[in-house]
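ping. complex inputs:
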Amino acid sequence: MKEKLISLIRPLIAIVISLILGALILFIAGYDVADAFGAIWNASFRNLRTITTTFNKSSPLLFVGLAVAISFRGNVFNIGAEGQLLMGAVFATLVGLYFTALPGFLLIFLMLLAGTIGGALWAFIPGYLKAKYDVSEVITTIMFNYIALNFIGYLVRGPIRDTTQAEPQSFSIARQGFLPEMIPGTPLHFGYLLGVVLAVVLFYMLFKTYVGYEVRAVGLNKDAAKVAGVNVRKTIVGTMLISGALAGLGGAIELANIHYLLEGISPGYGFTGIAVAILANSNPIGVVFSSFLFGFLNAGATSMQRSAGVSASFVQIFQGIMIIAIALATVAKKSLTKKIEKKLDVKPHVQVIEEVKQ
Amino acid sequence: MDALQITNFLASSVRMAAPLLLASLGLVISERAGLINIGVEGIMLMSAFAAYAGSKIAGGYWYGLMVAMLVSIVIISIFAITTIKYKAQQVIIGAALNMFCAGLSSFLYRLLFYNTGRFDDGIAAASFPRVAIPGLSQIPILGPTLFNHNVLVYFSYIMVIVLWVVMNKTSVGLKIIAAGEHPKAADSLGINVLKVRYLATIFSGIMMGMAGAYLSIAQASSFGEDMTAGRGFIAMAVVILGKWSPIGSMLGALFFGAATALQLLFQITGIEIPRNIIMMIPYIATVVAVLAVSQNKVGAPRALGVPYEKS
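pong. complex structure:
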C-alpha cells in the first residue's frame, strides 16, 4: 500500500512542475494566468453538461492511452497510435456508410469491430517488420501516421465526400449508428464506459495472466525472456496488435460519436496518448485518470482561447513539459534508490522491487 | 516530357533534398555518437519559426538563420542534458520535445504575428535568394540542377565533404565513432564519452536549426503551423538509408527529394492522381527504404540509444 502511495507522488510532482512552468510561460507572454487557468477549469466543471463533455473528450485519449501503455510495457515504441486511431475511424465510417440496413445495435457493434480490425491491421505491419526484419517501429509507425492522414484526405475529398458541405468531410453515417448516450441529454456516451471496462481487463491481463507476463518479460529484457522460453517475435507482434486494436477502437468510437469522417477528426490524440501513458506509468488503471486529466485540458483549451485569448496550442507545450518532468522524476527516483541501496547494501531486494514496478 | 521539365524536376529534387540533407548530416554525427533523437521534427519546426520571426523582426535572413540556430541549440540542450546526464529514455524525451515545439511554435506565432484575427502587415519575411554560380550555372540541365540555388544548399554539400573528412580522416571522427560503438572501451582509452556526446548533440542541433530555417526563409518566405510535415522524421530515415555516413545521407536525401519533387512533376505533366495519394509517396518510400536496408545493417552504431554510465 505504501509502495502504491509513493508511486503516486511522481506524477503529482510532474503535474505541479508543469503547472508552474506553464504559468510562467503565460506570464512572460503577458497573459492573465488566473484568467487562463480559470477558463480551463470553468470549461469543465461548471455544470453536468460541461463535466460530461470532458468525459466525452477524454474518450479517445483513454483508448490511445491504453494502446500506448501496453506497447510501452512490451518495450515497443508505438508512436503510431494516431494513425491506428485514424484507420479505425476510416473502417468504422465505411461500415456506417454502407451497412445502413442493419439495426442499431448490430451496426454499432460492426462499426466498432471494423475499427478495431483497422487499427490492428495498421499496427500489424510495423510490428511484423520489427519482429521479422528488425526495422525500427519508431520510424515506420510515424510514417504510417502520415499515410493514414493522407488516406483520409483522399477519402473525404473524393469517393465519400459530402458535397453539400463546404469543408471536405464524408457523408454522415446511418442514424442508428450514432453512439447512445449514457446520461440522456449529455455528450457522455457508452464508448467511454467500454474504455473503462477495457482498462480493467487490460490491467488484469497485463499483471495476472501468462500473456501479460510475456509482454512484460519481453519489455524488461528481450534476451532473458528468450532464455525463459518466451517467443519474442510473436510477443512483439501480439503487443502491437493489441495496441493498434485499442487505438482503432478508440477511433471507431470517436467516429460514432461525431457521425462523419473529416481530416481533423484527431487533433493529435495519438501523440497525447504518449503523455497519457507516461503520466500513468503505463498502468491501465492509471490511464483512466491521466486520460481524464488531458481530456480536461483539451476541453479547457478551446474555451481558454475564446475567453482569455491564449492559443489552444498551449496545451501541447504543457504536455511536452509534463513528459520531460516525469521522465526526469523517474531517473531521480532511480538514483535515489541507488543511494539507499549503497547505504543499506540491500541490492537484490531493491532490484526486485524496481523490476516489478517497471 | 521535354528537357525543361526534366531540368525543373531535377532542380526541385535538389531543393527538396536540402533540408533533409542538413538535418540528416547533424543526425549522422549525433547518432554515430550513440544518441537517437526523434525530437528532430519538433526542433526543425521551432527553428523554422525562429528563422521566420528573426528575419521578419530584425529584417534580414542572416539574422533569421542565427536566431534559428540559437533557438535550436537551446532546445537540443534540453535533450542533451536529460538523456546524457540524467539518462532519460531518448525516444520519450524526443516525443516530448516534438509536442513542446509544435505547441510553442504555434503559440508564439499567434502571439507575435496574429493580431485581431488578421495576420500583420503581410506575411512574407526576407529570405535567402538564389545565387547562380557564374559559368557553371550555364551548363544545360546540370547548371540549373546543381548551380542555381541559395547558399544553404551549397553549404550542405560542402558539409558533406567536411564531415566525410572529419569522420574518416581525423581523430575527432574516431572519438565520435568510439563513443557510439563501444563507449566503455572509448572511456578506457581516455576519451570523455559524455563530452563527445554533448558536443555531437549540439552540433546536430546547429544543423537542425539550419534545416528548419531553410524551410521558412529559403524554400519559402513564411511560416506555417506544422510546416515540417514529417521532414524531421524522414531525415532520420535518410540516415538509416545512408548507413550513417555523410555521403550516404547525401544520396538518401536526394532520393527523398526526388520522391517529393514527383508531386510537382505529376502536376506539370497533368497526370490525374488525387493530391493526397501523391503526398503519400515520400512516406511510403521511407518505409520501403528502411525495410530495404534492414537486412544489411552495417554501420548502425552499436550503442545507439543506450545511455552511458561511468562505472
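Chain A is about 75% helix and 0% strand.
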